Amino acid sequence: MNLYELNKLAIEFRSDIGLNQESPLDFFPVITNKLKNLTIVFLEMDEKISGACFKVDSQQIMFINSKHPKGRQVFTAAHELYHLFYEDAVFTICNLNSNDEIEKNANQFASFLLMPINALYSYKKENNIEKWNLNSIIDCEQYFQISHEALLYRLKNSSDITFEEFNKFKPNIKNNAQYCGYDSSLYEPYIDKNYTIGNYVRLVEEVYRKDLISNGKREEYLIQSYLSDLVYNLEDL
Ligand SMILES: [Zn+2]
User: Fold this and answer.
1) How far is the CA of 74 from the centre of ligand 1 (A)?
2) Are residues 204 and 153 in the same domain?
3) 109 and 160 fall within a common domain
4) For residue 93, how far is its CA from the centre of ligand 1 (angstroms)?
5) Ligand 1 centroid from CA 172, angstroms
6) What domain range is 51 assigned to?
7) What's the gap in Å between 99 CA and the centre of ligand 1?
8) What is the pLDDT of residues 31-62, one digit of tens each?
9) DSSP-derived secondary structure for 1-59
10) 206 C-alpha vs ligand 1 centroid, how far in Å?
């Protein structure tokens, strides 16, 4: 698929789930809300693995490396959506730096989903950006909540920045963002432990409410999906 087709796919995806084409996304809450059959499991994985996904019946499950920063976790999740919605494979493990054609398409889709071409164009226009510098790049990645690296790749691929600028802008991003007045949350994990959000939890609660499973079984399922804090009411302690 070429870039035009992947951007079109990302635009259709946004439209299908009722999102407008230019707004930044508070990604995890939004997809948890919009994609009713999706479960997201944050899991400690080898550094090289970004995520994985599989489909079972109508259910879609993705695994996100809990050690990666939020920007990368969001990008990985958007990348996994490509596999879940547009690929036939039942199970996929992803290393975002892979050169595999499907992986590259999934990366490009993720970039366009988080920041459609027109959204970036409007952003540039509204902010009078003619030549990107580190400050304008940080402002932009904070606005779209996209990873620093993903934005740099995007700007390099569209020849908005040179390869030399890419290398110059890349390091020390956490400190540099703080110097621009932002908090560091985009550069730290969104969830940094084994944890589950999404439909699995809703399903467990539903079958329990319908008396199809006992409370013991419900607790077992929640503990298995790393939600023991719900079982032991740790919030109240
Ligand atoms: Zn992948």
Assistant:
1) 13
2) no
3) yes
4) 6
5) 27
6) 3-193
7) 11
8) 999 999 999 999 999 999 999 999 999 999 99
9) --HHHHHHHHHHHHHHTT--SSS---HHHHHHHH-TTEEEEEE---TT--EEEEEETTE
10) 31
The pLDDT, as a whole number, for residue 67 is 97
| Same domain assignment for residues 79 and 143 | yes
Same domain, 109 and 223: no
Number of domains present in the structure of the chain:
2
Q: How many angstroms does the Cα of residue 92 sit away from the middle of ligand 1?
A: 6
State the Cα–Cα distance between residues 61 and 91, nearest whole angstrom. Answer: 10
Of 49, 42, 38, nearest to 13 by C-alpha is: 38
Residues 150-168: tens digit of each pLDDT: 999 999 999 999 999 999 9
Ligand 1 geometric centre to CA of 80 (Å): 6
* 222 shares a domain with 114: no
User: Coil, strand, or helix at residue 175?
Assistant: helix
What is the Å distance from ligand 1's center to 237 Cα? 40
Could you tell me the pLDDT band of residue 229, with boundaries at 50, 70 and 90?
confident
Band of the pLDDT at 16, cuts 50, 70, 90? very high
